[in-house]
Amino acid sequence: MAAASLAFDIVDKKGLEVLLLASLLSFQDQSEEYRTRAAAAEATSGGLRAYQSTSAGNPTPTLPPKPGEALVVKLQSSHKREPNEIVVGSEGAVDEYVDLACNLLQDETMLFIMIRALDPSQVQRVVQVAEETKRTRRRARYEEELHQYLRYEDEKTSEPKGPKVIRLDGSPPKE
Q1: What is the pLDDT along the chain (175 residues), one digit of tens a residue?
Q2: Rg of the chain's alpha carbons, rounded to an integer?
Q3: Within 10 A of 121 (CB to CB), how many other CB atoms are there?
Q4: Which residue intervals make up region (Disordered) (predicted)?
Q5: How many CA within 13 A on the CB side of residue 31?
Q6: What pLDDT is recorded for position 64?
Q7: CA distances in angstroms from 99 to 43, 105, 132, 156, listed in the order given
């Protein structure tokens, strides 16, 4: 069986050039749109207000950040490991974390968000943030329902482990 030839002749080289240029420009437009949407989501404060302003299409002036918001943003920048993660600490009000969660969920590229407690004493606040986020989205009349899954994890300090030694003679391992 002869190998099929994948080479083909291009009849309209100018048309191909225009097609390639148009596709590259569409990628650039999509990238710029994503950046402006992300910047608008960060600038907007208030989960419910953010949903209403984007659905109404009326540009609203951005409010200066509240003093508690600065603490929440600082906490996120110092403890956040993933882009879709929110770390809840003792600083800031629950509403500020809810606003942050709503802004993350507004991004179409976010499939899910993780809300983590900074320490075990903040687990109740994490649950409050999750419940308020669901409530806020329900008030904004979003069709897609949020599902929350709770998982308790104990972070273990990872000590460098050496190679595992398997004794073939049956003697107990030395400690």
Answers
A1: 455 555 567 788 888 888 888 888 888 888 777 777 766 665 554 444 445 545 455 566 665 555 556 667 766 766 667 788 888 888 888 888 888 888 888 888 888 888 888 888 888 999 999 999 888 888 888 777 777 777 777 666 566 677 877 778 877 766 5
A2: 25
A3: 10
A4: 46-67, 152-175
A5: 6
A6: 57
A7: 11, 10, 10, 30
Contact 69, 45 (CB under 8 A): yes
DSSP assigned state of 84:
T
pTM: 0.49
Cβ proximity of 61 and 100 under 8 Å: no
Instruction: Output the six-digit token pair for 17.
Output: 């050039």
CA separation for the pair 124, 39 (Å, rounded): 30
- Structure token pair of residue 132: 């308020």
Q: Which residues pair with 88 in a beta bridge?
A: 117
The size of the chain, in residues, is: 175
> What's the Cα-to-Cα distance from 119 to each of 41, 164, 165, rounded to whole Å?
28, 32, 35
Is 114 in contact with 151 (CB distance < 8 Å)? no
The pair of structure tokens assigned to 131 is: 């419940």
Token pair belonging to 44: 């907007």
Which tokens is 151 given?
């998982």
Q: Which residue has the tokens 């976010």?
A: 110
